[in-house]
Design goal:
- A hairpin with a 2-residue loop joins strand 2 and strand 3.
- The chain folds into two domains: about 35 residues, no CATH class; about 80 residues, Ribosomal Protein L15, Chain: K, domain 2, CATH 3.100.10.
- It has seven helices and seven strands, in the order αααβααββαβββαβ.
- It is rod-shaped.
- The protein has a four-stranded mixed β-sheet with strand order 2-3-5-7.
- With about 140 residues, it is an alpha/beta fold.
């Protein structure tokens, strides 16, 4: 019984047709070859985001996050604030300058038992309501 190779001696293509026997010809190239040419439809169907730029980059001045502090944290950190000099006790109120601390915005999460006079550049409406309910006030520098 002759071997398969010797069976095809004298045949130019060994029964594979013109391109099938030449490297990766039958499958249209190896790997990602032809994604912009003959494999376009499969790329559009299965991997439409492969080429090009997508989305946009936000400017850094917009992205920069504000440093925030909640009202509930004020009572917890009161001793540290008095020691470090950011807070001063006068009469029944505590005067506190958050701008000097580097805090950009005061938020209204939590409860406060003390009344504060706070200086901060930005604050939420809820923070203002809670401070005024406790007998305090907010000022902007």
């Amino acid at each position: 019984m002759p071997s398969r190779t010797s069976k095809f001696r004298g045949s130019r293509t060994h029964g594979r047709g013109k391109k099938a026997g030449r490297g990766a010809g039958l499958r249209g190239g190896r790997g990602n070859a032809g994604l912009l040419k003959h494999k376009t439809i499969s790329r559009l169907k299965y991997d439409p985001m492969r080429f090009g730029r997508h989305g946009f980059k936000r400017p850094q001045k917009v992205v920069s996050a504000k440093i925030t502090l909640n009202i509930g944290d004020l009572d917890e950190k009161l001793d540290e604030l008095l020691k470090s000099g950011f807070a001063v006790k006068q009469d029944d109120k505590i005067k506190l300058n958050l701008t000097n601390m580097g805090v950009d915005k005061l938020l209204g999460f939590g409860r406060t038992a003390n009344s504060y006079d706070i200086v901060v550049s930005d604050y939420s409406e809820r923070a203002k309501e809670k401070l005024e309910a406790a007998g305090g006030s907010i000022q902007q520098p």
